[in-house]
Amino acid sequence: MHETVDIEIIKNENSKLSSIDFDNLPFGRVFTDHMFYVEYSNGSWGKPVVKPFENLSLHPATSAIHYGQSIFEGMKAYKNDAGEVLLFRPDQNAQRLNQSAKRMCMPEVPEELFMAGLKKLVNLDSDWIPTKEGSSLYIRPFVFATDDYIGIKPSDNYIFAIFCCPVGAYYTEPLKVKIENFYTRAAEGGVGEAKAAGNYAASLYPAKMAKEKGYHQLIWTDAKEHKFIEESGTMNIVFEIEDKLVSPMPSGTILPGITRKSVLEVARAWGKVVEERKVSVEEVRMAAEYGRLTDAFGAGTAATIAQIQTIGFNDFDFELPPVEKRGFSNEVYKYLNDLKTGKVEDPFNWVVKL
């Protein structure tokens, strides 16, 4: 079905590939030769194109800049030992992008357009996919409003684009995180479940203050009472308490993470007890204090599995067991990496080969 989408291809005749040091890749600062691009106007998506990566030209009144209609996704591509290109659960990203679009009053991107553009772009820039352990091709689909109009209303015009970055690890060490009990990431009735750009802008100031105190990230709590844990700054969060995996249930205030979903599905397949429910700060604090919190980690596309070493709460730090002694998070990290790179069989049918 995806091959029926007619996509023009304009090749970049001045590739930067030979100048890239694939052994030293900063996250999100190196971009491949091409991008996918399509405009929405008059109620429909226009002619899509894969073209040389370039700057966008925008009107000063572009409505996304002023009124925040902007959403995005994060995903990755890998290569197996035979050099074939593999994508991990891209259908989930296409579906989540449209869930975000609906909440932000934006037009949905047909899944066949999303998948066709994604495949054309990644295939064309497949030489950019790094094969070093822990590296991948990060893929950023995004949609934003483009009306040149100053007025608060849904835009009539949009751009859907995809670009790619070869990347190394997002985090290079176990994390020190702080439970936030004043600032709020998202409230009930808001846009916390959408992958909207403004959610991340709103989190920058409290995250900056936490970093000044030596923490890598925050653990967000509910907006009403700050009693229940929601997610971390760049990822969902999972705790292991007395051999049970416990994770806050995605809701209107929590992004439904694809990595988190995958981790918990693998855990269930392995016979692990999994509980998706409200998780109170007090439960985690007590479990940490009495040695029942045996593991905690973030789960997200950029970070994959980011193990947490220290949890700060009310100016006191709780230390977790050394990461090398942990069981599940180490095992699932290796398993998912092996699955994404074709080193093990895929019983879930999650991996799409291009």
List segments where confidence is low: pLDDT < 50 over at least 5 consecutive residues. Answer: none
Shape: globular
Counting H and I runs of at least 4 residues, what is the number of helices?
7
Helix content: 10-25%
Report the major sheet: 10 strands, mixed
In percent terms, what proportion of residues is strand?
A: 25-35%
Order of helices and strands: EEEEHEEEHHEEEHEEEEHEHEEEHE
Distance between the termini: 14 Å
Please tell me how large the radius of gyration is: 21 Å
Count of strand segments: 19
Structural class: alpha+beta
Round the mean pLDDT to the nearest integer and report it: 95
Describe the structure.
The longest helix has 16 residues, at 197-212. The chain has 7 helices and 19 strands. The protein is of the alpha+beta class. Helix content is 23%, strand content 29%. The two termini are 14 Å apart. The chain has helices at residues 63-67, 90-103, 111-124, 197-212, 258-269, 281-289, 328-340; strands spanning 8-9, 34-41, 44-45, 49-52, 70-72, 75-79, 85-88, 136-145, 158-167, 175-179, 217-221, 229-232, 236-241, 244-248, 273-277, 293-300, 304-313, 316-319, 351-353.
Structure, briefly:
By secondary structure, the chain is of the alpha+beta class.
Task: Throw out a few tags for this protein.
single chain; 354 residues; alpha+beta; 10-stranded mixed beta sheet; 9-stranded mixed beta sheet; 7 helices
